[in-house]
């Protein structure tokens, strides 16, 4: 059974938070969903973690403007704000013990913003990372699986449309419109093989996202550059997963993360698209469980030494700049 709660952040926005597993667990796993999605897209991984011999505590929440969380002002539809939200969630709901952070798409970018904006807290707390279908380089590698000229046209149209939606307020897409989006969402987000339930969940998630969030976060997502941040995190259990049919964050995005973050395991899934946590849920669950096990085996002394090295690397980079 899960426990659902409402967490009001310092700026007044209330997040919908759900937790599972024993409160006294050695490791806490925090799951962050993708753009236009919600916390329940991780349902397969949650079930798998709860079947572990020593299940972790699990926390998943809907990002502001998504799912059942409250809407947000246009000025706070940024990845930096999401990184600050994650910091606040951890301080208030998981203030002690090692933490494993797992992020899909925008959720992975949120982890990077947390590491960038709160480096000392990150170094002290985080004992493992899972990046799924995400990027540290904005839309630098995004081609939608199209020839360059067509990709440029599509990006221009997407950018213009996002600007219009960002100014459309807290409305959500009309229910009658969502079925019409099915072919486009299936093409954009899924690979060769998928379950119809996965596509239905994705469509419902989009329907729960405010127009302001659908359009507003687009600019921040496109501009993010955090490879330098990843390079300063030090050696900790981490994995990067991507599908070779991912039209939004293709394999070069994952390769960039793996190259920047020491000791990261990179896995590319043939035939899979952007919704990897639903398309290849068993493999994603296994990768996450492995990281949780490794994080639980690390000692406080190891985590302290890792944090010290990461802070030292950050100071050196700061002087060089």
Number of domains: 1
Question: Which superfamily, in CATH terms, is the homologous superfamily?
Answer: Alpha/Beta hydrolase fold, catalytic domain
Q: If helices are DSSP runs of H or I spanning 4 or more residues, what is the number of helices?
A: 13
Cα Rg: 18 Å
Residues in β-strands, percent: 5-15%
The coarse overall form would be: globular
Based on secondary structure, the structural category is alpha/beta
First-to-last CA distance: 50 Å
Secondary-structure element string: EEEHEHEHHEHHHHHEHEHHH
Named CATH architecture: 3-Layer(aba) Sandwich
Q: Which percent bin holds the helix content? A: 40-55%
CATH class: Alpha Beta
CATH domain topology: Rossmann fold
Count of extended strands: 8
Largest sheet: 8 strands, mixed
Explained architecture:
The chain is of the alpha/beta class. It has one domain (3-320): Rossmann fold. The chain contains 13 helices and 8 strands. Strand 1 (3-8) and strand 2 form a beta hairpin. Helix 1 (43-50) packs across helix 12 (281-297), helix 4 (119-125) packs antiparallel against helix 13 and helix 5 (148-166) packs across helix 8. GO terms for molecular function: hydrolase activity. InterPro entries: AB_hydrolase (IPR050471), AB_hydrolase_1 (IPR000073), AB_hydrolase_fold (IPR029058), Epox_hydrolase-like (IPR000639). It comes from Paractinoplanes globisporus.
């Amino acid at each position: 059974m899960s426990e659902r709660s409402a967490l009001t952040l310092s700026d007044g926005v209330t997040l919908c938070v759900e937790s599972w597993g024993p409160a006294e667990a050695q490791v806490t796993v925090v799951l962050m969903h993708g753009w236009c999605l919600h916390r329940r897209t991780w349902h397969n991984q949650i079930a798998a973690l709860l079947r572990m011999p020593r299940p972790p505590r699990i926390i998943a929440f809907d990002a502001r403007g998504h799912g059942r969380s409250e809407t947000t002002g246009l000025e706070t539809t940024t990845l930096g704000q999401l990184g600050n939200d994650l910091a606040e969630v951890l301080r208030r709901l998981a203030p002690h013990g090692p933490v494993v952070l797992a992020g899909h798409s925008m959720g992975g970018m949120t982890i990077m913003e947390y590491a960038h904006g709160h480096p000392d807290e990150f170094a002290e707390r985080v004992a493992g990372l899972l990046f799924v279908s995400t990027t540290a380089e904005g839309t630098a590698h995004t081609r939608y699986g199209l020839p360059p000229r067509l990709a440029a046209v599509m990006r221009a149209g997407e950018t213009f449309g996002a600007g219009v939606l960002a100014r459309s307020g807290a409305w959500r897409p009309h229910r009658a419109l969502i079925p019409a989006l099915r072919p486009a969402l299936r093409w954009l987000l899924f690979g060769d093989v998928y379950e119809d339930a996965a596509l239905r969940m994705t469509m419902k998630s989009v329907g729960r996202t405010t127009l302001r969030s659908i359009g507003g976060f687009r600019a921040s997502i496109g501009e993010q550059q955090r490879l330098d941040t990843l390079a300063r995190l030090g050696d900790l259990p981490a994995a990067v997963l991507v599908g070779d049919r991912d039209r939004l964050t293709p394999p070069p995005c994952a390769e960039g993360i793996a190259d920047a973050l020491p000791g990261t395991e990179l896995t590319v899934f043939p035939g899979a698209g952007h919704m990897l946590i639903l398309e290849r849920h068993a493999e994603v669950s296994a990768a996450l469980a492995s990281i949780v096990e490794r994080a639980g085996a690390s000692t406080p002394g190891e985590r302290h030494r890792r944090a010290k090295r990461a802070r030292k690397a950050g100071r050196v980079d700061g002087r060089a700049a």
